[in-house]
Each structure stands twice: as structure tokens, then as C-alpha cells.
Amino acid sequence: MVAFLGTGLLGANFVRAMINRGEKVQVWNRTPSKATALEQYGAMVTSSPAEAVKGADRIHLTLKDDASVDEVLAGATPSLQPGAVIIDHTTTSVEGAIRRTNEWNSRGFIYLHAPVFMGPPNALDSTGSMLVSGDRQIVDRFSPILAKMTGKLLDFGPEAGRAAAMKLLGNLFLVAFTTGIADTLMLAKGMHVPVSDLSMLFDNWNPGAMLPNRLKRMTSGNYSSPSWELNMARKDTGLFLQEAKKGGVTLAVIPAVAAEMDRWIQKGHGADDWTVIAKDAAPSV
């Protein structure tokens, strides 16, 4: 028997996929209607976390944060089977993931943090990416089960909490990427460039293909022989801000980028490759 605690958009589709694979699933959600909506697919709806985990040898969670995970697991504790396995897909802090791993394992249970880069359609189709790390025996034991839930299972090694860190890093990139797109759209609006023209540009020019080499360059510690000098990148950034002001629009992140560029120029790096702005983040040589 499997218990699933937290049946929002992601959790609900995980449950449906489990049922499609022939698993019996008991579900609970803080908003009852989100759990009862799964009855039509064969889920057994319960009224509390404690009821949901009765008889379950494996418990999955997709909740909001550290506090909600701790609260829901505390509520489930009286009914947990000895040796039950807790697999937590919630995006949490690194410290929280490490603490729960140690606390639950010391109490005779298995806690494995397995956050995901998956949307609801991925959860239903068992595609996307799931991250794991920690005790090798535990990861090896449950990898076949987790692999059924996702297209890619990414193992980041023996360190508890590393999967949580990688999830946060991925989400940070998504936030930066999306806010960068938002500024691009805002500047396009200010310059009266239609979205169709932007689509044409990115249909034919894929800056994402530059990511692996850009990461290597930014972490190399060597910013000589520039392909784009910081001074020139800052000049263009000034043009972004100038055009935005002329068009009566406000950019959210580019002003902060300009300030960071100015900081490095003032430190004497204007003639270096503009990726020198990552110098403080590069590994020590």
C-alpha cells in the first residue's frame, strides 16, 4: 500500500500514474476536494495524514515547504508502520532535508528527499527529472521505484541534502531566466517590437545552446581574450535602459545587472570578458 500526502496539481497526477501502474494509493490533502477528486481514478481518500498512512509501507509527499512537511509528518507519526519509507518530493531547504533524513532514520524509518523538475503533465506521463542523494544503499534500493515515476533519475551522490541544493539551484536559474524574459518582453513593448518578431529571433537563434560553454568560461578563472568586453556589454546594457526610458517602460532586473557591471569595471576589469562578473563565484584555483 502507498500513501500520498499532498494532492495538488503535481501530487494528483503522481497518484493517477501510480494507480495506472496498478498500485493501491491512499491519499490525503489539506483541501479535501483535491483528494476526493481522485476517487474517480481509484484512490482511497482519507481524512487525516494518520489515516492515510495506515498500512502503507511507502509514503510520498508533495507539500509546500519545510514547515508543512514537518507538520504533516508529525500528524502521520502515530499510524506509521515500523520501518516505513518516507519519500519527500517537496522543494525544501538544504538544512531541512538533512535534518529530516537524520531524524527519521534515527527513529527507525527511511527518509529520502527526491525533489523534481516536473510539471503536472510530466507527473502523469512519468517524464521529467527527479533528483536524489544520500545513503548509497537507500538510493540503490529505491531507485527502481523512483525511476518509474520520472523520465530521468539524477543521482547526486552520498551527501544528504545535495538533491535539495540542486533543486534550489535549478529553480534559481528558472527564476533568473524567466525574469530575464520578462525584461526582454518589456523592452520589446517599449520599442514597439511585436512578440512575433521575438519568436522569429529565438526560433532561429538559440542562446540556450551556449549554456555549457558559458558555464565553463565563467568558472574557469580566466577572463582574458574576451569575446565580448565588459565595457562593451555595459555600453549595450546602457542602451537597454535608455530605450526602456524612452518607451516609458521599467525593467526589473537589468538595472541590478548594470550596477554589478559597474562594480567590476571600477575594479579594473572593463577590458576583460564580461563573464568576469562571475569571478567571485568561480572555484578557487
Can you walk through the features of this model?
The protein has 285 residues and is α/β, with parallel strands linked by helices. Helices cover 51% and strands 11% of the residues. The chain contains 12 helices and 9 strands. The strands form 2 sheets. Strands 3-2-1-4-5-6 form a 6-stranded parallel β-sheet. Helix 8 (162-190) crosses helix 11 and helix 11 (230-247) runs antiparallel to helix 12 (254-269).
SSE layout:
Layout: E1 2-5, H1 9-20, E2 25-28, H2 32-36, E3 44-45, H3 49-52, E4 58-61, H4 66-76, E5 85-88, H5 94-106, E6 110-113, E7 116-117, H6 120-125, E8 129-132, H7 136-147, E9 152-155, H8 162-190, H9 195-204, H10 211-218, H11 230-247, H12 254-269
Parallel strand pairs: 1-2, 1-4, 2-3, 4-5, 5-6, 8-9
Antiparallel strand pairs: 7-8
Helix pairs in contact: 8-11, 11-12
Features:
single chain, 6-stranded parallel sheet, N-(1-d-carboxylethyl)-l-norvaline Dehydrogenase, domain 2, 51% helix, 285 residues, Rossmann fold, 9 strands, 2 domains, alpha/beta
Oligomer: single chain
N-end to C-end Cα span = 51 Å
**CATH A-level architecture of the largest domain:** 3-Layer(aba) Sandwich
CATH homologous superfamily title of the largest domain: NAD(P)-binding Rossmann-like Domain
**Total strand segments:** 9
- The rounded Rg comes to 24 Å
Mean pLDDT: 97
User: What percent of residues are in strands?
Assistant: 5-15%
Helix content: 40-55%
In CATH terms, what is the fold-level topology of the largest domain? Rossmann fold
